[in-house]
Amino acid sequence: MKIVMTGGGSGGHFTPLLAVAREIRRIADEEKIVSLTILYIADQPFDPEALRMDDIQFIKISSGKMRRYASLWNIVDLFKTCFALLKAFWILYREFPDVVFSKGGFVSFPILAAARFYGIPVIIHESDSVPGRVNAWAAKFADRIAISFPETLQYFPKEKTAYLGNPIRSRILGGNENEGLALFALESHVPVILVLGGSQGAQSINTVFLQIVGELIETCQVIHQTGKNNYTDVLKQASVLLEKSPHRSRYRLFPFLTEDQLRNASHLARVIVSRAGAGAIFEIAAWGIPSILIPLPEAAADHQRHNAYMYARNGACSVIEESNLTPTVLLNETRKILSDDERRNRMSAAAQKFARIDAAEKIAREVILLGLHKQSYYGNKRP
């Protein structure tokens, strides 16, 4: 069986695809599917080491982006998209997969168009509460549609759409207190705050958080993922700001957290400060941790804001708009949650109720079923 996965090159698309790919391999082993090839087609590999470790082949394809405003780059990207379409038609003709699984994004458009032309089964997954352009288009011919938020059902044909949540990696679940304390060199019985800015980091969150970290570490410990591009600047600023603090060892700074680090950091955390990408929300929900979400205002179609407020309606988080994000506001909200055990318990219960930790498995099984149906239809021959 040959499966193509495609989606934008950000962590919000890559990690769910990786989670599904791992479940596909696990199920294939259980069901004795001997031959299995998984291809990831995108504009960048995002995490080449993860692809290598999970035996996923990467094929590069760069597609243009149609902006929602007038720009000369739209003309340039039109030519890029045409070239990407030609390349996608050749790749799918050469590989002819049994099924295509797409997370959306402009890079997936050429692959989906080629799959439609060749009659290859397609399953799409929409992470956000409001669908992106490509997924809204692909829904017209996709065989199956999976969604993360129940409210998203209104945008898709109900007869082929299922509310499954966002796929998360099973390896970030669990954790151990002693292992976590040793891994991060933290003190026991001192509350831990986990700060996540998404796969690319969040400069505005980093900037504001640095202004309050000195006060926070008087009573708390902090694990802060800055994003790879922001790490050096944040490290320099933090070194100056905390130079004379007797508690500076309570502030642990990382450009990026590995799966092992995430698993243990989440086990220790009492509250999480994060962007509001769907991937982040569903990982936080799976951990059952109260959170403060700060939506990215520049996100396409304002989807992070929609995501955050849909999650907040369940009582699992509080939301701070970036326009309202000040050191005082963030410090007060963090302290309110940390000091209120009853509120934290309610938020934790709401998060766990919202979580869908089996999303990756359910999607993987559907991908395999579609692929097997395709093989049966064509007598396991490539047309």
Automatic annotation (TrEMBL):
Gene3D superfamilies: Glycogen Phosphorylase B
GO molecular function: UDP-N-acetyl-D-glucosamine:N-acetylmuramoyl-L-alanyl-D-glutamyl-meso-2,6-diaminopimelyl-D-alanyl-D-alanine-diphosphoundecaprenol 4-beta-N-acetylglucosaminlytransferase activity; undecaprenyldiphospho-muramoylpentapeptide beta-N-acetylglucosaminyltransferase activity
Superkingdom of this protein's organism: Bacteria
E.C. no: 2.4.1.227
Glycosyl transferase family 28 C-terminal domain segment(s): 192-361
Domain Glycosyltransferase family 28 N-terminal: from-to ranges: 3-147
Catalytic function, reaction form: di-trans,octa-cis-undecaprenyl diphospho-N-acetyl-alpha-D-muramoyl-L-alanyl-D-glutamyl-meso-2,6-diaminopimeloyl-D-alanyl-D-alanine + UDP-N-acetyl-alpha-D-glucosamine = di-trans,octa-cis-undecaprenyl diphospho-[N-acetyl-alpha-D-glucosaminyl-(1->4)]-N-acetyl-alpha-D-muramoyl-L-alanyl-D-glutamyl-meso-2,6-diaminopimeloyl-D-alanyl-D-alanine + UDP + H(+)
Pathway stated in the Swiss-Prot or TrEMBL entry: Cell wall biogenesis; peptidoglycan biosynthesis
Organism this protein belongs to: Candidatus Ryanbacteria bacterium RIFCSPHIGHO2_01_FULL_45_22
Record's protein name: UDP-N-acetylglucosamine--N-acetylmuramyl-(pentapeptide) pyrophosphoryl-undecaprenol N-acetylglucosamine transferase
Record's bilayer topology term: Peripheral membrane protein
Function: Cell wall formation. Catalyzes the transfer of a GlcNAc subunit on undecaprenyl-pyrophosphoryl-MurNAc-pentapeptide (lipid intermediate I) to form undecaprenyl-pyrophosphoryl-MurNAc-(pentapeptide)GlcNAc (lipid intermediate II).
Keyword Transport: no
Compartments in which it is found: Cell membrane
PANTHER family: UDP-N-ACETYLGLUCOSAMINE--N-ACETYLMURAMYL-(PENTAPEPTIDE) PYROPHOSPHORYL-UNDECAPRENOL N-ACETYLGLUCOSAMINE TRANSFERASE (PTHR21015:SF27), UDP-N-ACETYLGLUCOSAMINE--N-ACETYLMURAMYL-(PENTAPEPTIDE) PYROPHOSPHORYL-UNDECAPRENOL N-ACETYLGLUCOSAMINE TRANSFERASE 1 (PTHR21015)
UniProtKB keywords: Cell cycle, Cell division, Cell membrane, Cell shape, Cell wall biogenesis/degradation, Glycosyltransferase, Membrane, Peptidoglycan synthesis, Transferase
EC main group: transferase
HAMAP family, per the entry: MurG
Entry's Gene Ontology cellular component terms: plasma membrane
Binding-site residues for UDP-N-acetyl-alpha-D-glucosamine, renumbered to this chain: S10, G11, G12, R169, S199, Q304
GO biological process: carbohydrate metabolic process; cell division; cell wall organization; peptidoglycan biosynthetic process; regulation of cell shape
Family the entry assigns: Belongs to the glycosyltransferase 28 family. MurG subfamily.
